[in-house]
Every structure is written in structure tokens, then in C-alpha cells.
Design brief:
Elements: H1 12-25, H2 28-32, H3 34-39, H4 50-72, H5 77-84, H6 89-103, H7 106-123, H8 127-142, H9 146-174, H10 176-184, H11 192-206, H12 210-215, H13 224-249, H14 254-257, H15 265-273, H16 278-305, H17 316-334, H18 339-378
Helix pairs in contact: 1-9, 1-13, 1-16, 4-5, 4-11, 4-13, 4-18, 5-6, 6-18, 7-8, 7-16, 7-17, 7-18, 8-16, 8-17, 9-13, 9-16, 11-18, 16-17
């Protein structure tokens, strides 16, 4: 049996996929702080430690799905699920496909809802036109394909990391006595059981973010690339999430109990810092977070629906524009539920479903099928042009 060229763990492709993961993760709930408060901060002193556990759950799903996509050169989530869930893909895969297509309305809907509020509060633009701006920008990025989405996600991820680091480090330093006291006194506001469960639940509903990662992974062909993308993503997302959680702990208990503070917890803490520059940096961060998340999820759905509709249309950019615009109109309707309802109820609902439609199937059927596909890889029986044997 000939040796397989495993490639590099880290390159522009793997880092780009990790960036799309982070930019999709760093959306309305993340940048506003509503997710961190609901699933981590309000439970107590373990809040800054559970993000690692949550991201390991997401990273595991990201690795399995990227590897299956790589082995089959199939990067639409419907194609990956069909390969992963064999031999019962007709029933389980179809169910996952339908549920995921529906649930993938929630994250971009939260972005449109928050974006409209952002434009209204900072620029006085009516909600309708604020939503329209978000819709147009999302479509413009999506129509240019996977490479454009990776480049866009990577560029804005770098800017978001800088903004998040500046705000969180300042916030943590300013309120370190409050944060340290909660950890030293081992304060629990709910219970250890709830803290663990909500940290797990966060990982469960975020696990579906693999769809955005896979859609941007076109061109991935070596065994180490899925590992590198997953590892980079776990480290990046854990660090950023933990920093935000720590900062928000400095705003306890107000960020979890005050009716106004818990609407936009991050904004509440930022305003308490009294740093004028943050009044400019924060809305920029929030806008970047909203647009990158919307792009990540809409592009994943666009990739899927492109296999079903307008199959004979030769103009790929026009096809992408039609599909993404149509999907965003539906997303706009969902956005009318409001940000907090989407984050607290909609996301939790996804988490419960993903236990049975994603986590368990991927850890059983998915891993089993990876072994099967790797045997084909060892034998050189891969899709055309994908023979990675060193002496092939």
C-alpha cells in the first residue's frame, strides 16, 4: 500500500475555514453579549472555563464533517450528511437536511434584527432601510463563491479579533476585582448542573456551524487540513469567547437582571468603562459580526439550494444572487421575532435537536464511514484528480 501525502496542518485554506467558523460564530448573540450571559455568565464562576468544552464539541463536528467532505470532494452540507449517514442517509440525512435548512434561518435572522437596530440607534436610519443594507451587503459577498467568502471572513476576523481584544482586555482590567471575587468565592447563581448543561447546550447548537465551515472548504484535499482547520478554530473561538465572558462577569449581576442591561450586555459594560473610542469601535465590531455571520450561513444554504434550483443556469453569479436574495427575504420575516427570543429560545431548541440529528450520528456513522472512505483513499479510488498517494 502506497503512502498518503497528508499535507500541512496550517495553510491559507485551513486558516480561512477557521476564520469563517469564527466569523459565523461571532454574530448578533456573540457581539451583543446576549449569548454569553444566557449560557455562561449568569450561572456563576465556571463561566470562563466552559467555552473550551463547548468549542471542543463544535470542533469535533467540524473535523468529522470536513474530513468526510474532503474524502468525497463534497462540500454542500446535504452532500456531506448523505456520505456521513450511509447506509441510512435517505431517512436520517433527509430529516437533518430539512431541519437544518429551517434552523439556519435563525442566526442570520438575529443578524438582520440586530443590524436594523444598530443602524437606527447610531445613524437614525429606519429599520426597513437598515435591514435592506444588511441584505444587499450579504448578497454581494455570497455571489462570488467560496474563495470570496473565505477572504472576506479572514479579513473581517482579523479586524474583529483586534476590536474584541481591545474592548475585553480593557473591560477585564477595569473590573478585575469583581471578576476575581466571583471566581475566588466560587459563586454559583444557578447550580453546577445547570452551568454544565448550558455550557454543553451552547456547544450543541453551535455545532451546526460546521455547515458554514464546509461550504468554505472547497479545495481541501489532504488529511491534515481538516485537523488544522478544526484545531485553529477551537483555539481562536475559545479565546475570544472566554475573553468576552470574563469581561461580562465584571457587569454582574446587572447584565443578567437589569431589563435594559441584558438587552445588549456588552454595550452596557462598554458604556461603564467611559472610554470614548469604544463608542466608535463597538458599533464597528457589532456590524462586522452581524455581516460575517449572515454571510457564513446564507452562503451555506446558497450552496445547498444551488444543487436543487436553477440547475441549467450558466451564470453562476446571477444564480447565487437569486438564491441568496430569496433566502434573505425569508430570513427577514423570521427576524421579526426579535433578538432575545431567537437567542434564548430558538438556539436552545436547535441544541436539543442536534443531539439526535448531528452529534450521535456523526460520532457513530460518521466515524465509521471515514474509515471506509480512507480505505478507498489508500487504494487511490478517490474522485478524479484527488489521488494523494505519494508515488501515484
Amino acid at each position: 500500500m502506497q503512502k498518503i501525502n497528508k499535507g500541512k496542518y496550517f495553510n491559507s485554506l485551513t486558516i480561512g475555514v477557521a476564520a469563517v467558523w469564527f466569523s459565523s460564530h461571532c454574530g448578533a448573540g456573540f457581539a451583543s453579549g446576549t449569548q454569553e450571559v444566557a449560557y455562561f455568565v449568569r450561572h456563576g464562576w465556571l463561566a470562563p472555563f466552559f467555552p473550551l468544552w463547548a468549542m471542543i464539541i463544535v470542533g469535533t463536528m467540524m473535523y468529522i464533517t470536513l474530513e468526510i467532505g474532503r474524502l468525497n470532494q463534497a462540500f454542500s452540507y446535504s452532500q456531506v450528511v448523505a456520505k456521513a449517514y450511509a447506509p441510512i442517509q435517505v431517512v436520517l440525512g433527509t430529516t437533518y437536511d430539512i431541519v437544518t435548512t429551517i434552523t439556519m434561518l435563525l442566526a442570520p435572522a438575529a443578524c438582520l434584527a440586530a443590524g436594523a437596530v444598530l443602524f437606527n440607534q447610531y445613524f437614525g436610519i429606519p429599520n426597513f432601510f437598515g435591514t435592506l443594507i444588511m441584505l444587499i451587503l450579504t448578497v454581494l459577498v455570497c455571489i462570488f463563491g467560496a474563495k470570496a467568502v473565505r477572504m472576506f471572513g479572514t479579513a473581517l476576523t482579523i479586524l474583529m479579533i483586534i476590536c474584541v481584544a481591545a474592548i475585553t482586555i480593557t473591560g477585564i482590567a477595569a473590573n478585575w476585582d469583581v471578576i476575581a471575587a466571583q471566581i475566588a468565592e466560587k459563586k454559583i447563581y444557578t447550580s453546577y448542573g445547570q452551568a454544565l448543561w448550558y455550557g454543553t447546550l451552547y456547544g450543541l447548537f453551535q455545532a451546526n456551524i460546521w455547515t458554514a465551515g464546509c461550504a468554505s472548504a472547497v479545495g481541501m484535499r489532504y488529511r491534515n487540513e481538516p485537523k488544522g482547520a478544526a484545531l485553529t478554530g477551537v483555539i481562536l473561538n475559545t479565546l475570544m469567547l472566554s475573553f468576552v465572558v470574563l469581561m461580562l462577569m465584571g457587569g454582574m449581576p446587572a447584565v443578567a437582571t437589569d431589563p435594559q442591561a441584558k438587552l445588549l450586555p456588552t454595550l452596557y459594560v462598554v458604556n461603564q468603562l467611559g472610554v470614548p473610542a469604544f463608542k466608535v469601535i463597538y458599533p464597528i465590531l457589532l456590524f462586522m459580526a452581524l455581516i460575517t455571520t449572515a454571510v457564513g450561513f446564507v452562503f451555506a444554504v446558497q450552496t445547498r439550494l444551488g444543487l436543487l434550483f436553477f440547475k441549467k443556469m450558466e451564470n453562476q453569479k446571477l444564480k447565487n444572487a437569486i438564491i441568496s436574495t430569496g433566502w434573505l427575504v425569508i430570513i427577514w420575516l423570521v427576524a421579526q421575532m426579535g433578538l432575545i427570543t431567537i437567542v434564548q429560545k430558538g438556539y436552545a431548541f436547535i441544541g436539543y435537536i442536534m443531539i439526535f440529528l448531528l452529534i450521535i450520528p456523526m460520532l457513530t456513522l460518521g466515524l465509521m464511514n471515514i474509515k471506509k472512505y480512507r480505505k478507498l483513499e489508500d487504494a487511490g479510488q478517490l474522485p478524479p484528480g484527488m489521488d494523494n498517494r505519494i508515488s501515484a
